[in-house]
Amino acid sequence: MSNRDNIEITLITENDRERMEQVAQMEADVFPDPWSYHEVRSTVRQKHTFCAAAMEGDTLLGYFLCYYVLDECEIARIAVAESERRRGIGQMLLGFMEQICHEKQLKRMLLDVRKSNQAAIAFYEKNKFGIDGERKFYYGGKNPEDAILMSRVV
Known about the structure:
Layout: E1 8-11, H1 17-30, H2 37-45, E2 49-56, E3 59-69, E4 72-80, H3 89-103, E5 108-114, H4 118-126, E6 130-139, E7 145-153
Parallel strand pairs: 4-5
Antiparallel strand pairs: 1-2, 2-3, 3-4, 5-7, 6-7
């Protein structure tokens, strides 16, 4: 296990095919409703998005994909590889995201999270996100689940 000094967070651009492939692979590893490579690529290519990867050498440790409209940032996806959790990578990603929000003069961050994902909810609450409400059966699939809507001022 290496220290945080070896972790670099960089923006993902539409030319980063390998990085987008790594993100799609991690999607399949950590989410019950993973985005495909094409969905990741489509998001990265959109005008009002910013996406970043936490890398240790050539290894993807985590990433985020965000959309923004007017003065709001929607965190569409944020993930850290299961084997890399509890190293502060999620915190680093969120900090990098906040920097970009400040640069783009975004005032609010929004997200939805599965009601059952108590670890993620605790992470967001620790980072001053408040609960705004719920969406019943927001997540479809074999086991439909409610979403918790959260936000905070940047």
